[in-house]
C-alpha cells in the first residue's frame, strides 16, 4: 500500500507518518511533500499512489489546488486544524476528514474507512465468495485464509497466523511476522473454518495453539494466554471457557 503525506509542518508530518506505520505496518510512505508546488510536481511523475493524507492549508496555498490541476485516483484523508473546508474536501476524492491534533485512534479509524470503502467498491474480477466456500468445504480441512490485499486476493496460511481479533468492529489477522490484515469473515465463521488448531478464548479473539506458550492465573478461575508474538492487549480467557481452554492446551 503506497501512501503519500502532504503536510508543511515537519513535526506534524513525521508524527503522522509514525502513526500510519503503527496502524498499517505493511504500508509504505512513498513521499512526504511540504507544499502545493512540490505536490503538483510529484503527482505529475508518480501517479502510483493508493492513499493520500493531506493538510489543507499549506504555506503556498490550499491543497485543493493540487487536485484541481493533477489527475489522481487515490482517495484522500484530509488533516487540518480547522473544519471550515469540510464540504470542499469532499468535492475532491476526500473520504475522511480528521482534525488536528490527531492521534493514533483517529488515524487508524480513517485507514479502516479506506479499507472498507475499497473492499465495497473494488471490482470483483473473481468469485471471492465461491473461493472461500470451496476452501471451507474442503474435507481435508482449510490450510489458508483469503484476504484482500491491494487489487488481489492473497491466501495466508493458518500456520502463519498467530491470532484473529476484533478492533473497532473490524476483524483483523495478526501474523507471526507482525503483519496485520483485515479478514473478510467474522470470528464465528473463522472459528468454524480454522478447526481445532485455533481456540476462541473470548468474544474478541481466536488464537492459534502454536502462538500460545503457556497460561497465567489472572483472577480465580480466569487465565491469560501468554503468546509468542507482541500484542498490545492481554489475551484473556473468558471464565466460562477456562475448562475447555485448558483441555485444548493439553491436547495439542
Give a short overview.
The protein is an alpha/beta fold and 252 residues long. The chain has helices spanning 10-23, 36-45, 64-69, 86-89, 104-121, 128-136, 187-194, 242-251, and strands at 2-6, 28-33, 51-55, 57-58, 61-62, 76-80, 94-99, 144-149, 152-157, 161-167, 170-175, 180-182, 198-202, 205-208, 212-219, 222-227, 235-237. The strands form 5 sheets. The protein has a 5-stranded parallel beta sheet with strand order 2-1-3-6-7, sandwiched between helices.
Question: Your description of this structure?
Answer:
The protein is α/β, with parallel strands linked by helices and 252 residues long. The chain folds into two domains: 120 residues, Rossmann fold, CATH 3.40.50.2300; 124 residues, OB fold (Dihydrolipoamide Acetyltransferase, E2P) (Beta Barrel). The protein contains eight helices and 17 strands. The protein has a five-stranded parallel β-sheet, sandwiched between helices. It has a five-stranded antiparallel β-sheet with strand order 12-11-10-14-13. A three-stranded antiparallel β-sheet has the order 15-16-17, covered by helices on one side. Strand 13 and strand 14 form a beta hairpin. Helix 1 crosses helix 5. About 7% of the residues have low confidence.
Amino acid at each position: 500500500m503506497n501512501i503519500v503525506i502532504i503536510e508543511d509542518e515537519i513535526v506534524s508530518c513525521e508524527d503522522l507518518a509514525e502513526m500510519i506505520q503503527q496502524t498499517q505496518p505493511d504500508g509504505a510512505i512513498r513521499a512526504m511533500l511540504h507544499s502545493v508546488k512540490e505536490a503538483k510536481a510529484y503527482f505529475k511523475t508518480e501517479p502510483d499512489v493508493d492513499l493520500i493524507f493531506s493538510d489543507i492549508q499549506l504555506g503556498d496555498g490550499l491543497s485543493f489546488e493540487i487536485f484541481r490541476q493533477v489527475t489522481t485516483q487515490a482517495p484522500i484523508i484530509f488533516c487540518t486544524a480547522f473544519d471550515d473546508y469540510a464540504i470542499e474536501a469532499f468535492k475532491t476524492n476526500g473520504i475522511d476528514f480528521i482534525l488536528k491534533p490527531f492521534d493514533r485512534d483517529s488515524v487508524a479509524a480513517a485507514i479502516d474507512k479506506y479499507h472498507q470503502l475499497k473492499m465495497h467498491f473494488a471490482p470483483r474480477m473473481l468469485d471471492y465468495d465461491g473461493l472461500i466456500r470451496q476452501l471451507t468445504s474442503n474435507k481435508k480441512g482449510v490450510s489458508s485464509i483469503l484476504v484482500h490485499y491491494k487489487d488481489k486476493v492473497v491466501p495466508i496460511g493458518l500456520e502463519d497466523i498467530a491470532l484473529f481479533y476484533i478492533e473497532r468492529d473490524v476483524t483483523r489477522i495478526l501474523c507471526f511476522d507482525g503483519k496485520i490484515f483485515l479478514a473478510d469473515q467474522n470470528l464465528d465463521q473463522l472459528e468454524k473454518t480454522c478447526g481445532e488448531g485455533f481456540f476462541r478464548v473470548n468474544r474478541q479473539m481466536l488464537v492459534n495453539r502454536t502462538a500460545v506458550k503457556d497460561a497465567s492465573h489472572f483472577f480465580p478461575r480466569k487465565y491469560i494466554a501468554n503468546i509468542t508474538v507482541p500484542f498490545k492487549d492481554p489475551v484473556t480467557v473468558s471464565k466460562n471457557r477456562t475448562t475447555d481452554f485448558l483441555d485444548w492446551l493439553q491436547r495439542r
